[in-house]
Amino acid sequence: ELKVEQNPLFLSMQEGKNYTIYCNYSTTSDRLYWYRQDPGKSLESLFVLLSNGAVKQEGRLMASLDTKARLSTLHITAAVHDLSATYFCAVDIVGSQGNLIFGKGTKLSVKP
Amino acid sequence: KAGVTQTPRYLIKTRGQQVTLSCSPISGHRSVSWYQQTPGQGLQFLFEYFSETQRNKGNFPGRFSGRQFSNSRSEMNVSTLELGDSALYLCASSVVSNTEAFFGQGTRLTVV
Known about the structure:
The complex is a heterodimer of chains A (112) and B (112). Helices cover 0% and strands 55% of the residues of chain A. Chain A is mostly beta strands. In chain B, strands 2, 4, 5, 6, 9, 10 and 11 form a seven-stranded mixed sheet that branches. Chain B has a four-stranded antiparallel sheet with strand order 1-3-8-7, with no helix packed on it. Chain B has 112 residues and is mainly beta.
C-alpha cells in the first residue's frame, strides 16, 4: 500500500525562524507536489517536483526532492504570519491515472 | 484565466437523499479528478475522468458515481446519503492525467 507520511503534523513557529517539513513516500513516483490549504479553502498548488534533485523556490518556501530516498522537504525561511496554513505533499502513483496520494498535512502556525 | 469552478459551494441534505455536485475544469483541461476531504481520513481519491471515460476509481462504495461530458465538465453523484458522507468534495483538473492538478473551491456537503 502506498503511504505518504508527513512530519511534523503540527508546527508552531515564531516569526523569523526557519523550519523544514518532511514528506516520505513508500513507492516509486514520477512526481511530487506541494499544496497549501487555508482554513475552509481549497488547495493551492505551490510546487511540482519532477525529477531527482529538483529544487524549487518561491519567496520564503523552498522544496526539494530526493527520489532515491523517497523524500521531499519543504523549507521555510524567516517565517511570517501569512505562511500560517496547512501544507500537503502528494505523489502520483506510477501507472495510475489522475490519482494523487496525499499526506495528512502539516498544520503550520506562525506566531509573532 | 478562469479556475476550476465547483457548484454548489454548500449543501445540506438528509440521510437517504441523493446529491449531485458539478465541476467545470479550466479551459483546455481534459482530466478531472474528484477527492473527498474529511478531518479523520484526510484527502481521498474518488475517481478520475478523461475524455468522458472513467479511467480510475478509488476505494469508495458504488453509491459514489460520476460522469464527464464532452466539454470536460464533470458531475459526481452520491446516492442514499449517510452521515459519514459529510465532507468537503474537491474537484481537480489538469491538462492530461498525472500533470499539475488545479483544485476548485470545493463543495461542503453536510448530511443530517
